[in-house]
Each structure stands twice: as C-alpha cells, then as structure tokens.
Design a protein that fits this description.
By secondary structure, the protein is of the alpha/beta class. The protein has one domain: Nitrilase/N-carbamoyl-D-aminoacid amidohydrolase (4-Layer Sandwich). It has eleven helices and 14 strands. Strands 1, 2, 3, 4, 5, 6, 7, 8, 9, 10, 11, 12, 13 and 14 form a 14-stranded mixed sheet that branches. A hairpin with a 5-residue loop joins β4 and β5. The longest helix has 30 residues. The model has no long low-confidence stretch (mean pLDDT 91).
C-alpha cells in the first residue's frame, strides 16, 4: 500500500462525515433567515484574513471557521469569503507533522532574506503525494461543513480553495454555497503559480458566472487576478462582483500586491472581494491583506478602498457595504470605460497565445 493511499485512509477516518455531522449538531448557532429580497443597493460582505493554525482535530477546524462566520453574521453580512488553501490547518492531523513543519519553517527562515529556495528542493514529490492523498477526504469534509454552516447561519459562503482530485490530476478549486446549504458552483483556478506547476497542479480554461439574488459573481483564484483578461471576461459574462481568495507565497510588498485585484477593479468597474491566508507551513511564508475594493470614484477617499485589513499577517475580518445600482451608474459615467480596439486585440491574442 503506497503513502498516498495510507494518507487518504487516515484522513477518511479523521474527517469522517459521521464525526463532522455529530459535532455540527452540537454547535450553538443563532439561526437567522436570509431574505431572498436583498436590496442590491445595500449588500454587506465580509472577507476573511487568517493565519494558518495547525489543528489536531476536525472539531477545532470547525470552531475556527465558526468564529469568522459568527462575526460576519453579527455584522449582518450576506456573504463571507474564505481564503486560498483554506485547508492547510488540517495537515496538523498527520502524526508528527507539527515537528516536521517546525523544522522546515526554521530552516526556511534562515535563508528567506537570501532569496534561496533550496529548502524546498526535493520536497515537491512529497507535497504532491500529500495533496493527492488528502484531496478527496478534505473535499468531502469541507463541502459538508460549509453546507451546514451556510444553512445554519443563513449566509452565502465561499469556502476558500481546496484540492480537487480528478483521476490522477489535482486542481486548486473553491466552492460557493447558498443560505439553504446548497452548492451553487465550484470554480477551478485558471492561472497557476510556479509552485503549483511544480506540484503538477492542472489548470482550468473557463470561468463560470453565478447568479445570486443581489448580483452576479465570479470566483477566480489568486494568480488569476494578475492578468487583466480575467476581469475583462468577468465583465463580458455579466459579473458585478469578483470573489478572489489569495495566499501569496512571498514577503509582503505593497507594490507587488498592487499587481493584483486593485488595478483589475479599476479597469473593469467591478467590486473585488479579497480574502487572504498568511503564516508559515512547509517552509513557505504566505502574506496578504483581506480587502474590499471598488472603482475609485465610488469610495469616500477616492482610493478604491471600501475596507482593508490594517496588517498583512494575523487574523481579521473586513466588512463593508457594496451598492450594485451605484456601480451601474458609475459605469455609465465612465467616459472611456469599455473602449475597444478590436483589430489590435485580435493581433494581441493571436501573438500572445499563438492562436492562428
């Protein structure tokens, strides 16, 4: 029996549906009903920023999720967004992983200022095996947990991303659940990082748009926001809100952060909801601020920021109001917005992507 199969069997035991359902039934959730008639002029949204905390049981993981959802519900949010790789904490269920993780992290901290990635060399196969082994149990567990919590709290929840295994391929994906506990859709990541390519992660080639009572949303993942085409497509398929979970594998830098969702929002006249994961795991350091962005003309300080976490590490929840009707008015007033040069764009796409 290979390591991948052993890992899958272990996680099936630790994240069994019976164990999850038993614990969820014990939760003291103050239930609320989310009206289907949500005023699109006053939609409250929350984005999670959280640090990786290895857990020794699925119950502790559920408690962590509930702490954020409970706060969002108390702030009357209609939607809460969790970050990319929202399952990393569950590696703490592996016997001995805490010690291994501490060793890798300490080694990485010694070399991080030299831009030396030698501590990761040779570990790609191990990580690929781990990801493949945990994929199916964690997918099933996350879907059960978030379905239950979305229904109990009466709130739309984006799960953050997890690993989907299809045949022998793995994908970085995230799911959106409705307040009835219903799965609305699952989106695969389209643009991969070098780290994901080395792991053998596969990418998607299309983006789905989901209709909610108050707006249409798309759910690309992290690196997808680096490219303007993603948001251009989002507009063309009718989206008003972009949900973007991130886990930036780099030391925080304001100017590097600005290559992502903020300029895409300004270009595309969409709302951007960014959740972020931070902390150390596998000798890798993730940073990033949770934020809610809007076109600059719609924000009080004319900076495009509705709400922004004060720091790029640690736990926080940012909440803000978005106004879809006002967004439409701003689009109409934008003099050069949606200008197109079809001849240039055809040549650009052809030469960039070698399309004949």
């Amino acid at each position: 029996m290979n390591i991948e199969v052993l890992i899958e069997k272990w996680f099936n035991k630790k994240i069994s549906s019976e164990r999850i359902e038993k614990y969820c039934q014990q939760l003291r959730v103050v239930r609320r009903r989310l009206s289907e008639d949500i005023d699109s002029k006053n939609v409250r949204v929350s984005c999670v920023q959280r640090q990786i905390h290895l857990v020794n049981s699925i119950e502790r993981y559920i408690d962590m999720l509930c702490s954020f959802i409970d706060q969002a519900a108390k702030e009357d949010s209609h939607l809460i967004v969790f970050p990319e790789y929202n399952f990393f904490d569950l590696f703490g269920l592996i016997p001995g992983f805490n010690l291994l993780n501490q060793t890798l992290n300490k080694k990485a901290m010694k070399v991080k200022n030299r831009n030396d990635e030698s501590h990761l060399k040779g570990s790609n196969h191990l990580l690929t095996t781990l990801f493949k082994g945990v994929a199916k149990p964690i997918e099933g567990g996350i879907k059960r947990i978030f379905s239950f919590l979305a229904k109990e709290y009466g709130i739309y929840i984006y799960t953050g991303s997890y690993i989907l295994k299809e045949k022998e391929g793995i994908y970085n994906v995230g799911s959106l659940f409705g307040p009835e506990g219903n799965l609305i859709g699952t989106q695969k990541k389209i643009h991969l990082t070098d780290f994901e390519v080395k792991l053998g992660t596969k990418r998607a080639n299309n983006m789905e748009v989901y209709s909610l009572p108050f707006s249409k949303v798309v759910c690309p993942i992290c690196m997808d926001a680096t490219y303007f085409e993603t948001f251009r497509i989002a507009r063309e398929i009718g989206a008003d809100i972009v949900i973007l979970p991130i886990a930036n594998l780099e030391e925080y830098n304001l100017w590097k952060a600005l290559r992502g969702i903020w300029p895409r929002v300004q270009e595309s006249y969409l709302y951007g909801l960014k959740s972020s994961l931070n902390g150390w795991i596998f000798g890798m350091h993730f940073t990033g601020k949770a934020s809610i962005f809007a076109p600059w003309s719609m924000t009080p300080n004319k900076d495009g920021v509705v709400s922004l976490s004060p720091h790029y590490e640690g736990d926080s929840l940012v909440t803000g109001e978005i106004d879809i009707k006002k967004l439409y008015k701003e689009r109409e007033k934008a003099e050069y917005h949606e200008d197109k040069n079809v001849e240039f764009e055809e040549k650009y796409v052809e030469k960039t992507y070698n399309i004949i």
